[in-house]
Amino acid sequence: MSAFAGLHIASSSLTTFQRAIDVTSHNISNANTAGYSVQTAAVATAPADNVYGMAFGRGVQMGSITRAYDENIFKGLVASDGNVAYFTQMQNSLKSIEGSMGTLDATATTQAMDDFFAAWQSLSHSPADPVAQSGVVAAAQNIQMQVSRMGQSIDNVMSSIDGQVNSMLTDVNLQLDQIVTLNQKIVSAMNTQNQQFQANDAMDLRDNLIRKISQVLPITVVPATDGSVTINLNPPSNGSVGLASVALVGGTDFAKSLSWDGTQLSMTSKITGNTQPVIGFDLTGAQTIGFTGGGKIGALLDMKSKDYLTQLNNLVSNMVFEVNKLTASGAGNTSITSYASGQLSGLNTAFVDSAVAVPFASQIQAGTFNIHVLDSLGVPVAGSPFNITITPGVSTMATIAADINAQATAAGGGVTAAASANGQLTINGDPDLLNGGTNRVIFGQDSSNFLAAYEMNTMFHGSVASNLQVDSALINDPSRLSVGNADPLTSAFAVGNNDIAVQMVQMKDVANTITGGNALTLNARVEGLVSSFGRDLNDANTRLTFHKAEATVIQARRDEVSAVNVDDQMIKIMEFQRSYQAAAKLVSTTEKMLDSLMGLVR
Amino acid sequence: MISSNSIFNNLTLGAQNQMTIQTQRNSEIASGRKVGSVGENPLDYKTSLNFRHLLKAAQDNTLAATEAQGRIKSATAALTQMITIMQRIDTIRVGLAPGANLGDFQGAKTEVETLRANLVKLANTQWRGDSVFSGTEITKLPFTEVSAGMAADPTTGLMRNVVNVPYAGNAIDRVLVLSSTQTMSANVRGDAAAFADTFASIEQFVRGLDHFIAGDVTNGDAFMQSSAAMIATASDGLSSLNSNLAGKLRAADAQLQIFQEAENSTKSAMDNFEGADLVSANAALQQSSTNLQIIYSLVGRLDKLSLINYI
Q: What is the ipTM of this complex?
């Protein structure tokens, strides 16, 4: 054995402990790096030299540099990240709407609905009182404002979903590609000596990317023995719909690309170019295929399937139609001599009950309505009321106008009707030749729903939150508001008649439905919407709190295993430093020995 | 191995939780309610909305019953004064004893005509701008004195001015909505016979006075006699109407009481249901503050507790 062997042994020690200190320094430097896993330098005895059958030690060498990592904890983190992100996103989306739902201090639509009926009750006491009339119109405008605000608020959240999903998918697609690249680096580094440093750091980077993706999509990670991972999109919780678990990343081989077109989330293979649907919605917003829950996109797509807007629009539809049915068949203080339908049946040859563009056309049924005609002094003209028959599948705007004109002509005049080419019906009082002025026209006793469906003398226009309007003529002149009925037999009308107002107040407690589903009062519909929203928000709040606590526990477990304990690393530095110093001393001692030996030679 | 990171994370989560408690409890104390928005507790919120519907309905119904009360009282006051006037007219009639001279008859006629004008005004009584006795023709004055001009008396041929007081309202009752399920007719109408009898009896009285003034004592006496019976009938009719109104008023009073009790009990139940437990909220706040102080103290200690400080 050479006299230089000691120097070689000391050298191996210096090199090894230098690397060990490097590893420890790396740990301390990354103590606060998110996702960093502490690395441990395992020092091992170098293989011995065999000289003439005798083994001589060769010192020390770096055995391995391992990453502190627990696969189960990491999988728990991935799942936990998905849950926290899901409920955080859900909570944020719902909180964007919460303001429009009101608070107990100002209950928004609920209060507006109560105020509306209270205003009608007040008007029923003083039908000719301009203040009471204005009160009802103002209450109707308040409903319109509250409903519109709520609808806009819901719509803003819903319409932003597509943009958010696409933006997130852009990031996810990049991250999937990066994971494949990292997989390749990791496999290569693990197969190359002295490259473990790089493999460990690449694994941490990959884990970070996986956790980022898990905050967006529900995924499962499947590690392979070569160090790479496969990432699967979780299958739907309901096994009867959707697809089985599908691979987004296949080890070192491929990453697929995800895209969202507003109704369907698709996955495209970059190798074959094939695209397959992952999640989809039908036209009603119901989920048809795909996964449930997990990640921000899971929350956004679940949010997309919430039916708040449907509930709100059902409320508006039922309210508009029921209120309009009453106001259409009545009159107020102002003498109205001319009406035009707010809805157009399209071609004047179309049946009034089947006009596609008229929201409430399907509510028209076989029945009649009266046209009361009063002269300018308020005295019914001869022949009044004119009773107009509506027959589904037969009546068109043209036949209705002809019927009105025929009856009026037979009675010696009084009113004239016309149907325009676009299907608008106009009804005008004739000039009052005897007294001057124009005949007054009052509708009444409509059992066919025609007047309400075609918005003739109605309080509201529109049928859903986004297009609800209070009649502008009514806003300008609240005394037009229908409060009472003309007598069905004599057409006599008195301004103190409050039949419509009475029925309106009674309607408050009447359950109805024209939109399908259970018959409910309008108040019950508002409460249903607000409380179903509240349940979702409360659920998101509660579960977010739970999942955050769960995430903290799992993170703590991860920290116990993988985080850098600076104190621990400092101790290790001292150990390695001392070992390094000892090796240096060995060099010094060996040098002195050699010096002494050289002195003998001299 | 427990790292300082995990300890910091736990303390941070603890601090966040304590701050959430502080926010919730502060909100409870500030609003006085245990729930403020639907997200906090949807079931309680929905119950609160139900309470509000009930309370609003009870408040509106109370207003309606008060309205009915006012309307009936105004009608009652008018009828009571009309009865008093009729009594005065009868007193005038009785006072015209045999031996009354021309001046007495002329004076009586002047007073009776003035009283008739007052009766017409009372019959045109309005409540909040609406005529009380005109049915649903609330914007019309139900009664006006219409002079027919000088004409021969159909029985005696005496030329005299006949004054009629026709009814211009209609025969439809005003309906008041007390609640979504209750209505009541809160008035009497001017087409009731008592009103026509009243004005007819006065006209008959004046007819008698005209004949006395013209020196026709025989017919004057006959018309005066018949007017006595007519005045009695009219007064009875007015009293009957007033009794009818008194019945309606009692009904309105009873309804008002019921609605007020409903309002009060609903308000009380709502306050009990919604009211925050201030003692509990305060205790929770105190506890939370203590917890926060402990957490901050631990963070401070942990910051100092590092090997780096000793080497």
A: 0.83
- Please enumerate in sequence order all residues whose Cβ is within 8 A of that of A377, keeping only pairs 6 or more positions apart, or say none: A435
Q: CA angle at residue A495 from A491 to A497, to 5 degrees?
A: 75
Q: Which residue of A has its CA nearest to B50?
A: A527
Three-class secondary structure of residue A449 per DSSP: coil
The number of beta carbons lying within 10 Å of the beta carbon of residue B301 is 9
What's the rounded Cα separation, in Å, for the pair A430 and A408? 10
On the question of pLDDT at B298 being above 90, the answer is: no
Q: What is the pTM of this model?
A: 0.85
Q: What mean pLDDT is reported for chain A?
A: 90
Contact A154, A100 (CB under 8 A): yes
Q: What is the pLDDT of residue A282?
A: 52
DSSP A48: P
Using alpha carbons only, give the angle A512, A516, A521 rounded to the nearest 5 degrees: 25
- Between chains, do A105 and B177 touch, taking CB under 8 Å as contact? no
Please give the distance of CA A476 from its chain centroid, rounded to a whole number: 39
Question: Cβ separation of B177 and A567 shorter than 8 Å?
Answer: no
CB contact under 8 A, A506 and B175: no
**First-last CA distance in chain B:** 22
Q: Are the C-beta atoms of A367 and A390 separated by less than 8 Å?
A: yes
Query: Do B187 and B128 meet the contact criterion of CB atoms below 8 Å apart?
Result: no
Phi and psi of A336, rounded to 5°?
A: -100, 130
Task: Tell me which residue of B271, B298, B255 sits closest to B68, measured CA to CA.
Answer: B255
Q: Would you tell me which residues 187-246 of chain B have a C-beta closer than 8 angstroms to some C-beta of chain A?
A: none
> Are the C-beta atoms of residues B105 and B125 closer than 8 Å to each other?
no
Residue B230, classed as helix, strand or coil, is: helix
Is the distance from CB of A247 to CB of A256 less than 8 angstroms?
yes
Q: With bands split at pLDDT 50, 70 and 90, how would you rate the model's confidence at A196?
A: confident
